[in-house]
């Protein structure tokens, strides 16, 4: 510390370093503020109506972007969101429904799904069969709400394709 | 060096270097007056006093850079009134754009000018890049201190800014066109492995396209990107000047010297260049030969004025007849069929449709391969190309020089590919992205399920 020159150097570096650190911290703070801490998105667990509102066959729920299928007492729900780039799919009724084994359980296929954005095609069980779609459509968990008996879909809980919800 | 050797130049009224007139003369009476206009006028101070004559040829540059700048000016000016009229809120955005279109006096015209000049700017900036590549104008000549490669990189930055500006503006009307273009665009970002979903969430300000998304795109569109494009544009122009003008001007140094000439002084383009020896130096005698250079005022200024006025006139008149599209309000429940990106991204939409590949049981989403990796690789390759191009300096500033024939052909093949894919995406894709001939009718499909 005896040489004034080196002390000057140290202060210069300190000052410069402090300036860089301050600018860096301000930049980090500004950018971090842009990452949301709270999500006001719609909830992922949604009541979708009384079981009697669902007729045999398929019902499309635009708000949840979901196809709900019913066959007698059993129901299952397939996502209507294309796995390629997230467009909403259209369902097309098959002229001749067929029954196929899906994950070890028989499933009556009444529709197929077509994407308007890039032409992906899915079979009735959600398997991607043509176009750029990289993976099959998700199936979601169904249950009954204990308070009012409505069907509840959990859009954050994908299930295997042998999942069926059976009404009591 | 007077234009009229028998007449002495008229004496300037003020102090030396201070131009008496508030503006410059369209017809300067002398070389002195012409040079004075450049030296003492703020608007012209970044021009050279003299310009290499062939640099001004219409059929060399097609004035595409000037046209891009004119469109940038036009898009900025037409954006200002829109800034007062548009409301960036999910509830009111669509209504305010509808008001601009149908209620505000001249609103439809201002919006059409804004939209049309934005679309034209994308096309013209791209053509400018094509011109610069084909003429090898990113190549340095014999001058010292030239960094034309850097200016090429800045130009690519300007092209990307132009594309993002156009894309962010696309969302603001909050109609069906906007909503689904942003859905597809941001899902491309989320297809990047590991960080993708986080990037999408940062772009959208949440997990769904909502108010947070609109305000983000709005701020990018009206502040962040215009600021970026402004700064890079100024740097781009400054570099053109520092590099000694267009690459074609370097051909001046290649001109044969007259054998009888005594060793003569050299001249540089910049004052600092004299002190540091870091500027292209050209023999003073060559520079002053009347067949090689002309005064920038009025020969350069007049041409710039013509290009700018032509662009303004063209866009203004076309906007009376062109109506900027406004579709139904954004509806998250219904995807239009077909859902198309803006035309300048349709070649990418074509690619993301066709690039999902399966390697064994492993599938790569076309969105990542065609939407991120491929365009990223193309931009990277374009950026570093000046360092890969080993052709002789003498082939810069020429259309189709012999020793750049192969790279020009490959480049043109890529350009043609992009154009063909854009054409297919625009005219040949119908419902469910099926192929139709442009004259073929699309089948009637229900718009809602």
Sum up the overall morphology of chain B in one term: globular
The rounded distance between the terminal residues' Cα atoms of chain A is 86 Å
Beta-strand fraction estimate of chain A: 35-45%
H and E string of chain B: HEHHHHHHHHEHEHEHHEEHH
**Distance between the ends of chain B:** 80 Å
Structural class of chain B: mainly alpha
Instruction: Give the overall pLDDT of chain A as a whole number.
Output: 87
Inertia-based shape of chain A: elongated
How many beta-strand elements of chain A?
11
Structural class of chain A: alpha+beta
Which structural traits does this protein have?
heterodimer, A: 168 residues, alpha+beta, seven-stranded antiparallel beta sheet, four-stranded antiparallel beta sheet, 1 helix, 17% helix, B: 449 residues, mainly alpha, two-stranded antiparallel sheet, 6 strands, 55% helix, globular
Structure, described:
The complex is a heterodimer of chains A (168) and B (449). In chain A, 17% of the residues lie in helices and 40% in strands. Chain A is α+β, with helices and mostly antiparallel strands and 168 residues long. In chain A, strands 1, 2, 3, 4, 9, 10 and 11 form a seven-stranded antiparallel β-sheet that branches. In chain A, strands 5-6-7-8 form a four-stranded antiparallel β-sheet, with no helix packed on it. The radius of gyration of chain A is 27 Å and the shape is elongated. Chain A starts with a helix and ends with a strand. Chain B is mainly alpha-helical and 449 residues long. Chain B is built from 15 helices and six strands. Chain B has helices at residues 31-40, 58-61, 64-85, 93-102, 107-134, 148-171, 176-190, 196-204, 211-242, 271-276, 284-287, 296-321, 346-354, 366-388, 405-427; strands at residues 50-52, 266-268, 281-283, 293-295, 357-359, 362-364. The termini of chain B are far apart.
